[in-house]
Amino acid sequence: MIAATSERWQQITGQIIREGYGLSETSPVLSFNPMRLGEFSATTGLPAPSTDIKLLDDGDREVAIGEAGEICARGPQVMRGYWEKPEVNATACTGYVGVFDQRGFLKIVDRKKDMILVSGFNVYPNEVEAVATACPGDRIQDAKDSSVHRRAAQIQCRKNSASRAPRSVG
Question: Binning pLDDT at 50, 70 and 90, where does residue 124 land?
Fold first, then answer.
C-alpha cells in the first residue's frame, strides 16, 4: 500500500489503514498490524501468533534483518501442502519477497514470479500498480485490451463520474 492511499483513507474515515498479509494457503493471514499503532506503518505488520516467517535467499539461506528474501512460513493457519503434488510442496514458499525491519515488521517489496494468473489470463501486477497509482480518479476498472489479442491489465480512471480514455498496461 502506498502512503498516498493511506492518507486519503484517513482523510475520509478518520482512521489509519492497518494492513495484513495472507494467501489462500494461509487462511486467513500470516502477518498484520496491531491495533495499538497510531500511524500508517507501510508494512504488513508482525507475524500472527504461533506463526514462523523466514525470509530466504535463492540458496534457501535465511537473510539478515533489513535484507530481502522470499517469504516462507509455517503455522496453524498454513496448509500442509497441495494434494498429490509432492514436487510443488518440496519447493513451496509464497512467491513474495519481503524485508523485516528492526521492529520485526514485514514489508512486501517484490514478487518472485512477477505475473499473476487471473481467470486464465496473465496479469503483470507491477504495471497495473504503476498505472493505478498514477490515476487521479476515484475508480479503477478492469477492461479487455483487444489490441494485443489477450486479456491484459487495462486501467480506466474516472474522476467524479467523468470518463477518461483508458490507459493500457501490459
Answer: low
Is this structure's pTM higher than 0.90?
Answer: no
Give residue 119's pLDDT.
78
Cβ-contact 96, 108 below 8 angstroms: yes
| Total residue count of the chain as it appears in this document | 170
φ/ψ of 70, rounded to 5, equals -70, 135
pLDDT of residue 36: 92
Q: What angle do CA 43, 158, 150 make, to 5 degrees?
A: 80
Higher pLDDT, 7 or 92: 7
Torsion of CA 138, 136, 1, 102, to 10 degrees: -140
Grid cell locating 101: 525491519
Cα→Cα distances 140→45, 55, 65, 101, 169, Å:
26, 33, 36, 32, 13
Q: In the structure grid, which three cell numbers stand for residue 118, read together?
A: 487471473
Q: Are the CB atoms for 70 and 93 separated by under 8 Å?
A: yes
pLDDT band at 94 (very low <50, low <70, confident <90, very high): confident
- What is the set of domains in the chain, with CATH numbers? 3-111 (2.30.38.10), 116-168 (no CATH)
113 burial via Cβ count (<10 Å: 0-12, 13-18, 19+): exposed
d(CA 45, CA 122): 29
